């Protein structure tokens, strides 16, 4: 039977399969299939669903959103920004130099012999072929000098011809060595018409490598700002062509796992970066002399990508939120700074739903606290009013009369005016707190503290009055 696929969107708070409740933005891809062997496949939740939707349906809007945030992190002059946006041809190191002209001509001649996979522009079909090499290498990461030790050239040519012809290859047959496969993977990357990270992004990568922390006085230090570098790379990878981004993820995952086995293969992240930076980041037709000023920076940049590869292919949270708001019809925001406005106390119209719910809960708690306090004070007033006549009773009643709006004592409250007296530190202060403690902006913690103080004051006052009555009797 056929196989049908589609998307299933779970609304916020809607029950998920199995009775669980989904979180916000819970989006999943699902497969409807009559093949019983495939029905047990897990549902894949995709938090970047709206990001990918915006990228495919409105690429111009998506690019503007991402680039505006890239320029928030790194300083790109007008020409470099135009190159990143694809509005101008990239101006690359060595483009006007004649020192290495012979080398460049030789490389151009080599690329004219284009095969189906090798030397051709990157496509999904080409990635499918090369992924066989990557899958095999994942199972053979312990070979010492992997990617550094060259393989057998004859076996490599046989393997290259098979890939170009679209033939499925049984790499596990033992005919090929892991060094043959590793060298062929580097060869494939080196023969692409442009580096995997593209010429347009070259200057942006140089600027990302320069992101450093600031000291207390606001001066730049030599310590890399890893968080901003990760964020900038996340954004930059979002606007890579889809085939480049797919292969880059497969490659960095492989290099990350290779570096984790460096005790066996002797290949650290830095060693791997030295092997791959010329193939994935250096502009084509340039030599090390052309990049003399930046070669260390570029190699360190690739080292950083390998070490942090597991974080670089997630869209930043504010990009996911912007994409989600774009499709839900809410007010769209174009940058992280715009989303930060949601937390501003003066922008009520931009408050998210959760903040509004929390505000309503705080208001309800304030009303409940105020009601309980008033009931306690009314009970205390009745107790004072029923006391035998004494100087203490008259003093307390005068204090009640100073704040007639704080309580509702009833019709039997004495109405005779009383002269002003020095306010009691305990009871009149309590009533003053009762009047001043009701603004809506008071925090829940302050309300709880106030409630406790009032209850304690009432308890002590009641105990004092009861002991007074007992002594008089």
What are the salient characteristics of this protein?
473 residues; 19 helices; disordered N terminus; two-stranded antiparallel sheet; three-stranded antiparallel β-sheet; 53% helix; mainly alpha; single chain
What does this protein structure show overall?
This protein is mainly alpha-helical and 473 residues long. The chain is built from 19 helices and five strands. The protein has helices at residues 49-57, 59-73, 78-84, 101-111, 124-138, 153-164, 178-190, 202-209, 226-238, 242-260, 262-265, 269-280, 295-307, 317-328, 336-340, 353-385, 391-402, 427-436, 444-472, and strands spanning 3-9, 27-33, 44-45, 212-214, 220-224. The strands form two sheets. The protein has a three-stranded antiparallel beta sheet with strand order 1-2-3, with no helix packed on it. Strands 4-5 form a two-stranded antiparallel sheet. The protein is elongated. The model is unreliable at 1-33, 97-113, 342-354, 406-419 and 421-442 (pLDDT under 50).
Look at the structure and give the mean pLDDT: 75
| Estimated radius of gyration | 36 Å
Strand order in space, largest sheet:
1-2-3
Distance between the termini: 97 Å
> Helix/strand-derived class?
mainly alpha
Order of helices and strands: EEEHHHHHHHHEEHHHHHHHHHHH
* Percent of sequence in beta strands: 5-15%
How much helical structure, as a percent, in the residues? 40-55%
- Shape by Cα distribution: elongated
Low-confidence spans: 1-33, 97-113, 342-354, 406-419, 421-442
Number of helices: 19
- Per DSSP E runs of 2 or more residues, the count of β-strands stands at 5
Largest sheet: 3 strands, antiparallel
């Amino acid at each position: 039977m056929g196989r049908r696929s589609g998307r299933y969107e779970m609304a916020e708070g809607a029950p998920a399969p199995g009775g669980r409740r989904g979180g916000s933005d819970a989006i999943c891809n699902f497969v409807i299939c009559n093949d019983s062997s495939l029905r047990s496949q897990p549902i894949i939740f995709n938090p970047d669903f709206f990001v990918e939707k915006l990228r495919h349906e409105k690429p111009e809007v998506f690019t503007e959103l991402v680039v505006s945030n890239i320029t928030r992190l790194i300083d790109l002059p007008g020409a470099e920004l135009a190159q990143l946006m694809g509005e101008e041809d990239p101006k690359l190191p060595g483009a006007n130099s004649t020192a290495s002209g012979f080398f460049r001509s030789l490389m151009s001649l080599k690329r004219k012999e284009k095969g189906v996979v090798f030397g051709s522009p990157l496509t999904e079909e080409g990635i499918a072929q090369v992924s066989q090499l990557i899958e095999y290498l994942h199972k053979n990461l312990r070979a010492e000098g992997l990617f550094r030790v060259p393989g057998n050239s004859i076996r490599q040519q046989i393997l290259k011809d098979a890939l170009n012809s679209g033939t499925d290859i049984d790499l596990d047959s033992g005919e090929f060595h892991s060094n043959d496969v590793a060298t062929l993977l580097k060869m494939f990357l080196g023969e692409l018409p442009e580096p995997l990270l593209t010429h347009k992004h070259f200057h942006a990568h140089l600027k990302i490598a320069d992101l450093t922390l600031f000291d207390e006085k606001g001066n730049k230090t030599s310590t890399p700002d890893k968080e901003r570098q990760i964020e900038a790379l996340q954004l930059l990878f979002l606007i890579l062509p889809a085939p480049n981004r797919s292969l880059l993820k497969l490659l960095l995952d492989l290099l990350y796992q290779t570096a984790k086995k460096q005790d066996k293969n002797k290949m650290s992240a830095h060693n791997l970066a030295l092997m791959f930076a010329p193939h994935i980041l250096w502009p084509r037709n340039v030599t090390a002399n052309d990049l003399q000023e930046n070669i260390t920076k570029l190699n360190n940049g690739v080292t950083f990508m390998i070490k942090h590869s597991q974080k670089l292919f997630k869209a930043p949270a504010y990009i996911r939120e912007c994409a989600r708001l774009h499709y839900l019809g809410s007010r769209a925001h174009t940058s992280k700074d715009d989303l930060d406005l949601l937390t501003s106390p003066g922008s009520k119209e931009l408050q998210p739903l959760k903040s509004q719910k929390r505000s309503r809960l705080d208001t309800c708690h304030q009303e409940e606290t105020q009601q309980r306090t008033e009931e306690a004070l009314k009970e205390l007033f009745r107790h004072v009013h029923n006391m035998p006549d004494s100087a203490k009773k008259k003093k307390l009643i005068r204090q009640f009369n100073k704040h007639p709006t704080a309580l509702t004592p009833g019709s039997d409250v004495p109405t005779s005016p009383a002269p002003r007296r020095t306010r009691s530190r305990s009871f009149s202060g309590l009533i003053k707190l009762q009047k001043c403690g009701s603004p809506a902006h008071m925090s829940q913690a302050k309300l709880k503290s106030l409630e406790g103080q009032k209850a304690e004051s009432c308890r002590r006052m009641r105990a004092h009055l009861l002991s007074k009555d007992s002594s008089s009797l």
